Amino acid sequence: MGVHMESILLDTRAKMQQALSLLLTDFSTIRTGKANAALIENAMIRAYAGSPALKLLELATIHVQDHTTLIVTPFDQSIIGEIQKGILEANVGLNPVAESTIIRITIPPLTEERRQELVKLVNQKTEAGRVMMRQIRHEAMEKIKKRAKEQSVSEDEVMRLEKETQKITDEFIEKIDTLRDQKETELLSV
């Protein structure tokens, strides 16, 4: 009995960790005025005619030169123009400049208005993360109730598992809030 019920908690924790990782990846694409490879590494590049688009990180190295400059070095120099075009089309507000064998990207400082828009975006993504956590909690609670009926588990055991599920949920929502606070601080510090 206990093993099957405990597996619900492990599964819940794993799903919440996965949701948190998705949110972290999502946050890393929000520009803060500081150079960060995550801003462009997933830009889709149509490098070769007739081939599917590839992520920039599959076609080049991305180096953070200083806090406002990214250097992209294509593995194949013949596609430097396609990479430049793909970064522009990714619509991340960056202007890539091709210089012989590299592409230089200078990250412009954010305006106060843009900072506020990005803080709103961070808050929207944070709320979406919380909703994901609550959905995972809801699914876990349903599984606990279903298995309790199937295996005639005591009410005390069901209550303990529900409390433990809520504790895990609270822990992950706290992690989401911490991520949000860090991202807001990053956005608002000039």
Give structural notes.
- With about 190 residues, the protein is α+β, with helices and mostly antiparallel strands.
- It folds into two domains: about 1-30 and about 110-190, Orthogonal Bundle (Topoisomerase I, Chain A, domain 4), CATH 1.10.132; about 35-105, Gyrase A, domain 2, CATH 3.30.1360.40.
- The protein contains four helices and six strands, in the order αββββαββαα.
- Strands 3-4-6-5 form a four-stranded antiparallel beta sheet, with helices on one face. It has a two-stranded antiparallel ribbon with strand order 1-2.
- The longest helix is centred in the last third of the chain and has 40 residues, at about 110-150.
- It is elongated.
Q: Can you lay out the helices and strands and say which pair or pack?
A:
Elements: H1 2-28, E1 44-45, E2 54-55, E3 60-66, E4 69-74, H2 80-89, E5 96-99, E6 102-106, H3 112-151, H4 155-188
Antiparallel strand pairs: 1-2, 3-4, 4-6, 5-6
Helix pairs in contact: 1-3, 1-4, 3-4
